[in-house]
Amino acid sequence: MDFQRFFDSGALPLILADAYGMIARANPAAAELLGRQNPDLRGCSLAEFVAREDRPTLNSLLKTAREAPGSTPSADLAISLGGEFGGIAVTALALPEATSPSEVLLILGDRRDYHLLEERVAYLTGVDPLTGLANRLLLNRQLTEIAATASAQDRSFALIMLGLNRFQEINDSFGHDQGDLLLAEVANRIRSALPEDTFVARSNGVHFVIVADQNPLPLLEQVFRNLSLPFQVAGQPLHLSARAGICHFPADGHRADELQRNAETALRQTREKFRNDYRIYHPEMKLRARRHLELENALVGAMERGELELHYQPLVDALRGRVFGVEALLRWNHPEKGLILPLKFLPQVTSAGLSRELGCWVLRQACDQARTWTQPGSDRLRTAVNLFSEHFRGPEFVETIGDILAKSGVAAEGMELEVTEQMLSEDRRASRRILGSLSELGVRVAIDNFGTGYSSLGQLNSLPVQTLKIDRSFIAGIPGDQKAMAITSAATALAHSLGLQVIAGGVETHDQLAFLQARDCTCVQGFLFARPMPAAELTAWLQNGGGQLKTYPAERPGSGP
Known about the structure:
Strand order of the largest sheet: 13-14-16-17-18-19-20-21
Radius of gyration: 32 Å
CATH superfamily of the largest domain: EAL domain
Number of strands: 22
Structural class: alpha/beta
CATH class of the largest domain: Alpha Beta
Number of domains: 3
């Protein structure tokens, strides 16, 4: 039974008040007991109905409830019952699972019903109404007791924190009602995978906690197997995956909160794109998590402090010896750590919820700079910008792109937006729609890091993209790595057969360039030509002859390594 139904049922006289005793509402049973109409009780102080000598006890009751959520303080109070004072047992508790933590629930009852009250309160504060599992409050109490018993018996145990992957997408697609039904079924499958005496709780949202013996992996594997079977959502089969973090008592903590925190730290080290991934906690994880949080906090204000900037690396047509474009690359000039490359801080962008804000900032900065490179007398340079996945899938993304282009005055065909195979594969139908809208704007689209994802050839053929960028990891293996050479050759041939421009990234040696030229891949990017530079430095480089480079005639097909 959920809180609302329990409150309205009238099984017990209930009053919901703020933490200092002002009544928000009372159910009919409580109103009848106090001899007042329910609407008349709203806004009244509980003190009005309590004998003067018992008001300090009432205040103490409320203080205990609000400062120790999960406790159930009780006292006998002389309460006005229809004009006459009578002794009533009053139980008070805060209900963070059901209401705002600032609200307190008071249960009024006869002393003879105290045990019934206690039982109902324990149920209400201990069971998650959606899944029937123990809730967070009961989890904390029970885990404390389990730890105390294990310590006394010199035993150890494992704590598993299980998280469902991409559950928000299910809520967005099917609605929260279907999501709730699915969560209830998930709870049933978890429970059916465990021995009867195993303690399991719903910690919050889509996180579940399981207390297991020293070796939790066989049990976890059974849970994963149960969850891997298809679910039915709105009449459709749906597959779920999960991840888990594991820690051990007493090696990884003695207190309930410490164990849950460390299991969650391990959970955060798992990778969502891998099905049924798990990690076992190690103290080094906590240090990494702390560094991650520190960097995230510093990143939040980095834009306002002017610490972020774009560097630009030339895109080169080696056959004609000219620069035809640039790729905008984000850099962070940290006041203490110096220049930080994106790989070090992009995870913090996502966790801090900055993807859309930072993505728009990068696009505006790149467009403003592109305008200076398209003034009369300057070479027309294409500007490529990498997109954040969350920004790409965010609301009004295409409209935002159009607005930024319009305000900057840069022609749409002068911009190229780079997306990865992973971004496209997350929701192919939505990706195709977004790319189609960008194509209508006239914006070029490139698939970046090609070869590292899972694009099918049929999908690639149907997507409105103009450029394919071969990942630098394959170029690094040339010459010598036969697989890297074969993948690079195949990707180049594929791009040409589809009428796409192909660009090879990370070119650093003449041997690599010769191999690419022999496969008719003449558009390249890398340290062989130029490193990424701030805008002013790149402008000077272009004006001093950087835009006109030495030509590298392509060798005859087959003559390369």
